[in-house]
Input
Amino acid sequence: MLSMKKRILTVLVVAGLFGALSVTTYALTTQEKINQKEQEKKETENRLNETQNNIEGMQEQQNTLKGELNNLNTQLTEVSDNLEKLENQIDAKEQEIEVTQQELAEAQKTADDQYAAMKKRIQYMYERNDYYFLEAMLSANNFSDMLNYFDYVNALSAYDRKMLTQFEQTRDDIAAYEVKLNEEREELADYKVQVEAEQARVSGLVSSTSNSIAQYSSQISVAEQEAEAYEAQIKQQEEDLKALRKKLAEEIAMSKLAAKSAKRDISQISFAEGDRYLLANLIYCEAGGEPYAGQLAVGAVVINRVLSSVYPDTVTGVIYQRSQFSPVGSGRLAIALAENKATANCYKAADEAMAGVSNVGNCVYFRTPIPGLTGISIGGHIFY
Output
């Protein structure tokens, strides 16, 4: 009993070592792996093509945006130039208004001075009218001199009135011109507001378009990295396919060699203490859901390999030969051994197989059916 426990422990340790050494989980037969890998490679190629198409589409959209950005930058430059011209025009108009206001003040002052002087002269002449009239008559040498004096007085009054009228007209003209300048300044200011709004709008579009271009650049960069990863994945898948096809060729060659090679008789085999336990649990992992005939067939394949001179000559060696039985690589066998998952039928199939019973002749491989594969069909497997 103690020896049996040691044997089970040894089997578990060996299973763990083989599981640790097995980098790839061989859950499928070699042909299934080839089919799966070809499908994976095709899917990766499709993803690569899709990614490359996405990159091209994003690049086209990015180029379109770059063209729009150039147009927007041109518009922004034009708007900015117009705004600068408007600001210069407004500054010039402000200066012109300032000069006009100074001229208006001067004209107003001149008119006021002229008006004041004229008022004084009229008032003075009105107040002293009798005296001047008498003085002019007494001082005149003749009637002609007296007339000249009155003509002078009339001419002076007419001149005052004329000049006052001219100054007032000049003042009114300047005031009207100031009003016109202010209106023009207000129009320019209103137009400036519109141009500033347009500048803000175009500037916002430039910023938005620039951000979109930057986002596309980031997305393109990510997509290019994905494409590179897909290319590397395809290259690896091609190498994996090459290795799997080589392995399949080796399996076929091994199967043919086994058919031609010498075989030992079952009586020549000395089974180890834990072989029955190990084989029964492998049968459980490979064909636990199969009918009994399928379970016996799996056991027979293992024993056929033990009997063949081209495989290891022990049950442990055959089962743990690298990449031969998927439950070894996947860890399922180790779990089954730890919990003794094998059923009574699995032990019965192991006993019959170890006794030399085979319902699949000398077959040394089995797998799920695939087109073109011939052999003995039992349950869900083809034995060949």
User: Anything to note?
Assistant: The first helix runs from residue 2 to 21. The radius of gyration is 57 Å.
